């Protein structure tokens, strides 16, 4: 029998290590088998979307890696929460300088208070539920009584309408009844009898109407008299104005004669000097006013119209038309100023009865249009 060849020492040592490894249980293999078993049971399908996918492919490395990262993040957050809570507890113990402050007795007291609060909350919930049930019962009761209430409301509205109609009918009857019976009617409808107004008779009403007609006739007569007087006054003023214009050359002639006579005689009496000064003042004032407003002449085409002719700053004509009865400004017409709309100014002047405002407005616009841009 041949002897077995001698085994090298390193191979013997390797065999010993292999035997030792075979004797130690493989925890990784056991955990892997348990993990696959959980995946097959569907435990991961009940969790999030990533784990439900992992349950279908439990050995897929990417999914396993993502799940491991999620678990690692969760453990880190849990650890940080624990450390934070522990630090707060240590800080409270440090600032209170009493390590035994939060003991079992305090926790029991807090638990008892918590149970008391829970009991009170439960009682309040019961009361709220009772109120809710009572509200439901009342709502059902009201719903059952609603048709009857609607019927009674309609009946009350109908009766109120009938009462109002009866009161109106009684008031109509009161108009046709004597004064002695009106108080009884007001008493029947519940009104104050002191508010009964004495009605006038037909004869009294006709007498009042006749008196008013007479007064109106007298007023019409007075109005006609006033209109006639105003027409005569206006005619006399027009005639006086025309005579004044006619006498103006005679005044100038007389003035020249007086000046010639004064030069011949070498002296002038007091009356002649006064007349001369008055004539000179009138002529100067009239010319100055016309130059000031740019008025060249004026005339009266009709009894209630005054027409003014202007030459400066630009030639234009404005006609003022007055109401023959009230003698107030009724209308106005402007011509000669191209591009000027004076309708609004005319309306304001007629409303305020202010012809001077209209005259100054037209002169201002004439000045503006005459100035070159």
Can you tell me about this structure?
By secondary structure, the protein is an alpha+beta fold. It is 73% helix and 8% strand. It has 10 helices and 4 strands; from the N terminus they run H-H-H-H-H-H-H-H-E-E-E-E-H-H. A 4-stranded antiparallel sheet has the order 1-2-3-4. A hairpin with a 5-residue loop joins strand 2 and strand 3. Helix 3 (49-56) runs antiparallel to helix 4, helix 5 packs antiparallel against helix 6 and helix 7 (202-265) packs across helix 8 (270-293). The longest helix is centred in the middle third of the chain and has 73 residues, at 104-176. It is elongated, with a radius of gyration of 61 Å. The chain starts with 8 loop residues before the first helix and ends with a helix. Mean pLDDT is 76; it is low at 193-197.
């Amino acid at each position: 029998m041949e002897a077995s060849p001698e085994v090298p020492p390193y191979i013997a040592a390797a065999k010993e290590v292999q035997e030792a490894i075979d004797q130690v249980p493989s925890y990784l293999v056991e955990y892997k088998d348990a993990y696959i078993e959980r995946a097959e049971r569907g435990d991961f399908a009940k969790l999030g979307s990533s784990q439900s996918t992992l349950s279908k492919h439990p050995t897929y490395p990417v999914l396993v890696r993502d799940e491991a990262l999620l678990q690692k993040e969760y453990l880190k957050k849990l650890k940080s929460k624990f450390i934070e809570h522990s630090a707060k507890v240590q800080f409270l113990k440090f600032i209170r300088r009493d390590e035994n402050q939060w003991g079992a007795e305090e926790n029991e007291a807090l638990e008892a208070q918590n149970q008391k609060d829970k009991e009170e909350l439960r009682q309040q919930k019961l009361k709220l539920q009772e109120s809710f049930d009572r509200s439901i019962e009342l709502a059902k009761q009201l719903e059952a009584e609603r048709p009857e209430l609607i019927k009674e409301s309609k009946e009350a509205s109908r009766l109120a309408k009938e009462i109002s109609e009866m009161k109106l009918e009684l008031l109509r009857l009161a108009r046709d009844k004597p004064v002695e019976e009106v108080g009884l009617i007001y008493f029947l409808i519940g009104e104050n009898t002191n508010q009964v107004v004495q009605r006038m008779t037909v004869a009294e009403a006709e007498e009042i109407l006749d008196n008013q007609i007479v007064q109106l006739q007298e007023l019409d007569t007075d109005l006609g008299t006033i209109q006639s007087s105003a027409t005569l006054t206006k005619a006399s003023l027009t005639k006086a104005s025309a005579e004044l214009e006619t006498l103006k050359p005679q005044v100038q002639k007389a003035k020249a004669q007086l000046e010639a006579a004064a030069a011949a005689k070498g002296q002038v009496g007091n009356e002649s000097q006064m007349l001369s000064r008055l004539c000179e003042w009138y002529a100067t004032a009239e010319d100055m006013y016309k130059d000031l407003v740019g008025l060249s002449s004026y005339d009266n085409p009709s009894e209630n119209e005054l027409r003014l002719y202007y030459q400066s700053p630009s030639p234009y004509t404005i006609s003022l038309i007055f109401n023959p009865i009230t003698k107030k400004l009724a209308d106005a017409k402007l011509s000669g100023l191209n591009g000027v709309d004076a309708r609004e100014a005319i309306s304001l002047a007629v409303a305020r009865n202010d012809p001077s405002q209209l005259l100054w407005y037209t002169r201002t616009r004439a000045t503006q249009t005459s100035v070159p841009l």
